[in-house]
Design a protein that fits this description.
heterodimer; A: mainly alpha; Arc Repressor Mutant, subunit A; 9 helices; 0% strand; B: 255 residues; alpha+beta; five-stranded antiparallel beta sheet; disordered N terminus
């Protein structure tokens, strides 16, 4: 078995967080096999992608033990849904990460915002900086560049709300607390930012 | 704090595209998120909006550093897979973003055994992770209230939050079930078909229509069977067996 595409503790210099075309093909093949009920293919997919998915989940669900429950649940969902993966809909790793993110956010929202997660410490700007690191392959480069540029045009506080929500699963309530604003203001910020982002991305791409 | 269930009704004119964007961001509150998840099971336009936002944000995923999970997760995952000795365990179709009908290759699966496996897998998945969704897009919660006389049950098959999708009233003495859809919509050009899944496999009960309908349970239907709703071609499954993704299930529990 080949090593993980996303090794533990890998630096961005050594291991690209994106995937190259050949890796996409491999993941697509595994998803096809999983769709036919091949458990070995799921094990291989898990070995290749679980560090990435766990990274995504752990950013949202900070409790490591709960995050591991979410990870297991995400792969059970992948097991069920692999047959419906449509290569036209997007790259396989993004599809897998979307399942993981949704599972993690579902878990948080079910609990309610009050009892989970500490205060927001990270800065949205850090995420944008990480986004702009030259670490992805050419196919993803344009999309990444466009998203980075369009995020860069937003009001900094609005942009940070969007990025902290997406990357860390922060709720409107948590963002309201961080920015010391009413929740409705945060909602307005998010809506403005999302509308601008859409317009910008449509113009750029 | 605001952000409670009231927001859903307080903001009825909200742009559906912004709602899809907030669903992807994860900033909808519990009720709004559940309502969106329900919509995704049946509304292909909503699915398209959500997928477009997933694509727009996906480059940010590259910015998230990988972390190695504990090896016991892998072991537990593989243990949880319902791999039977009798052959393949073909997973279900079903778009995890939606409940979008999927082309399936009938050669690859026996729909009857397939639905049973699927239901079993869902039980494992939900048991393993609390109240996790049967479909990514759909929380299935079943509230069952036994009625005074034995043999009658009320199952509310929910799409998460406080939005019942189907209210199923079952009378095992007369073998009838009354189905009242509440906000359950079939995707354009498709029908929702109700099934009773007992020991002998899925039996069609009829199409889920716009109003209440009365259906007859198959002979020998036991109260521990499972009710399921699948997405089918217009008019229902041509084969008498489920062919499309199952979007709801609800269990009837004996008193």
């Amino acid at each position: 078995m080949a090593g993980p595409i996303f090794a533990a503790g890998a630096t961005q210099d050594r291991v690209p967080p994106g995937l190259h075309g050949a890796d996409d093909a491999r993941l697509r093949r595994l998803l096809f096999e999983i769709g036919r009920g091949e458990a070995a293919a799921l094990a291989e997919l898990y070995d290749l992608t679980s560090p990435k998915l766990f990274g995504v989940i752990l950013r949202i669900q900070r409790d490591r033990s709960l995050a591991e429950d979410v990870l297991q649940d995400a792969y059970l969902r992948i097991w069920q849904a692999a047959g419906s993966y449509d290569p036209e809909a997007g790259r396989p790793l993004a599809w897998l990460c979307t399942i993981a993110r949704n599972r993690a956010i579902d878990g948080l929202r079910r609990k309610g915002a009050a009892e989970v997660q500490g205060p927001v410490r990270d800065d949205g700007e850090d995420w944008v900086a990480r986004l702009m690191d030259p670490h992805d392959d050419a196919a993803a480069f344009l999309d990444r560049d466009a998203l980075g540029a369009c995020l860069g045009r937003l009001e900094p506080a609005h942009r940070d709300c969007v990025v902290l929500a997406y990357c860390e699963g922060r709720s409107r309530d948590e963002l309201a607390e961080r920015y010391d604003r009413p929740v409705n203001t945060i909602k307005t910020w998010l809506h403005r930012a999302l509308a601008s982002l859409k317009t910008c991305l449509e113009a750029v791409t | 704090m605001t952000g409670g269930p009231g927001d859903l009704t307080a903001d009825p004119g909200s742009d559906p595209d912004l709602r899809a964007a907030e669903y992807v961001l994860g900033t909808l509150d519990r009720e709004e998120r559940a309502a969106m998840a329900l919509a995704l099971a049946t509304d292909t336009a909503a699915v398209a909006r959500v997928q477009a936002w997933e694509r727009r944000f996906s480059p940010l995923l590259g910015a998230i550093p990988p972390v190695m999970p504990s090896p016991r997760v892998r072991a537990a995952l593989l243990r949880a897979l319902p791999v039977g000795p009798g052959g393949s365990t073909a997973p279900q179709g079903g778009n995890p973003l939606a409940g979008d009908p999927v082309t399936q290759d009938p050669r690859l699966r026996d729909p009857l055994a397939h639905l049973r496996r699927q239901v079993r897998r869902w039980r494992i998945a939900t048991a393993g992770a609390g109240l996790l969704a049967a479909g990514l897009a759909l929380f299935v919660a079943v509230g069952l209230r036994p009625e005074p006389e034995g043999g009658r049950y009320l199952a509310v098959v929910q799409g998460g939050g406080a939005l019942p999708a189907l209210i199923v009233r079952v009378d095992t003495r007369t073998g009838t079930a009354q189905v009242r859809p509440v906000g359950a919509e079939a995707p354009a050009g498709r029908s929702l078909e109700l099934w009773y899944v007992g020991a002998e496999g899925p039996k069609p009960l009829g199409l889920v229509g716009g109003g209440a309908t009365r259906v007859t349970l198959p002979q020998g239907a036991a109260p521990d069977g499972v009710l399921a709703v699948s997405v089918e071609p217009p008019g229902g499954s041509p084969s008498g067996q489920p062919t499309g993704p199952v979007v709801y299930t609800g269990k009837l529990i004996a008193e």
